[in-house]
Design a protein that fits this description.
single chain; 82 residues; alpha+beta; three-stranded antiparallel β-sheet; 41% helix
Length: 82
Amino acid sequence: MNSRAYDLVLNGFEVGGGSIRIHQRALQERIFKALGMDESSYEEKFGFLLSALDSGAPPHGGIAFGFDRLVMLLCGRLRSGT
């Protein structure tokens, strides 16, 4: 299985990243099964999510910045202890 993921790199250092979330029920169920979950288990724990996916939840992507990494670069500290 492939993912649609991306990273934000500044001067060779990763400062953020994200991905396009799963937005199709069939694919999400394949992932649950690949993780070794049986249908009753994932329905009980994630039924609300599967229901939302059935309702046509749109694709969603996000990005998270590593604020600590960005500050490290801005301060000229390229690795711990320098």
